[in-house]
Amino acid sequence: MAYKISDDCIACGACAGACPVGAISEGDGKYVIDAETCIECGACADTCPVGAPSQE
Ligand code: SF4
Ligand code: SF4
Questions:
Q1: What mean pLDDT comes out for the span 22-44?
Q2: What is the CATH code for 3-55?
Q3: CA-CA distance, 28 to 55, in Å (whole number)?
Q4: Any idea which ligand is nearest the CA of 12?
């Protein structure tokens, strides 16, 4: 299951730089993960200051 970014996201952009496959992009007020590109490595969750990315 791909990771998803919750509404807790403060749009800092840190996760986008940490993602090894470029699955994260800036969306409308928060960042979003392309579920088809995500390889479920967890780097975004480890990088995020507010714990917004999680695996459902
Ligand atoms: Fe990118 Fe890994 Fe986060 Fe998926 S889990 S969005 S591959 S950093
Ligand atoms: Fe949002 Fe966390 Fe990514 Fe920053 S690191 S853009 S707060 S999900």
A1: 98
A2: 3.30.70.20
A3: 21
A4: 2
